[in-house]
Amino acid sequence: MIPPIADRFVAGETAEEAIDHATALNRKNVKAIVNLLGEHYHEAAPAAEDRDRYLQLIRDVDASGADAAVSVKPSQIGIDVGEETFRENLRDIISIGDSRDVFVWVDMEDHETTDITLDAYEDFARQFEGGVGVCLQSNLERTREDLERVADVPGKIRLVKGAYDEPKDISYKRKEKVNEMYRRDLEFMFAEFEAQAGIAVGSHDPKMIDYAIELHDEYGTDFEFQMLMGVRDDEQERLAREGYEVYQYIPYGGKWFSYFYRRIRERKETLLFEVRAVIG
Ligand code: FAD
To answer: Residue range 108-126: average pLDDT?
Structure first.
């Protein structure tokens, strides 16, 4: 059982609970991206276990009829074990996703993993002709070049500001600068991406949401919004009602505590108040 408050951000401990949440969201025209929590495995065995859980998750999503993609972290399926292990596990997941028509997202972790993750994305996106997406982070200086590289790849790119504390010689540290880069990267995507390269705006920031809509009106490029479960849920539903394509990222699994803790730290003021109200 996920305790109160945490259950706003995490759908449950089981895939069934996550898929039930996705099905309920679908009724409000919000689509789902289901994520099994887990990261930083340094041995092949736990990476293979989570790969298998993803294979089963994809079968379950398919059987449920839910409109749901999945999203996986590279360090959860073996990037810290070795590139080959990571690629084999990812290929298995994308391959079953392809056969069941379930889209597979690859989250992006810290800068030491970017090359291997992006190389795998490009190869599999071309091999499976879409059906796979990857996240890129505007706080990294390299991202503009990475966007140029993937502009004609048949897949999808989720643009986020970046959640990792990166070294200052390769990243932007000031919030204003990251916001400026996010806007610049978004404009590049709307203006330059080929039709087969999809755009996902991964942000809760009202300014970036408005800017994406402006860019869409200017360039006519298709795109989708992506936000996290429990963060601006009303806004997700409002955008869906307005006719935009909206996906909610839905984490689940036994390893929920550190994810929940991160969400709490981001929004200390509001959430600590609620935690106190529940624990008395
Ligand atoms: P911020 O820059 O944090 O905030 C800007 C404004 O947004 C705030 O002033 C407020 O108005 C609004 N806002 C933000 N958070 C809240 C909140 N909790 N409640 C109410 N309003 C809020 N990062 C990675 O590095 N790799 C990934 O693979 C990755 N995947 C992601 C997938 C999705 C679907 C999403 C939404 C984010 C992902 N991230 C990932 C995290 C991302 O990099 C940012 O750290 C995170 O989204 C915070 O940035 P922001 O643009 O949402 O808003």
So the answer is: 98
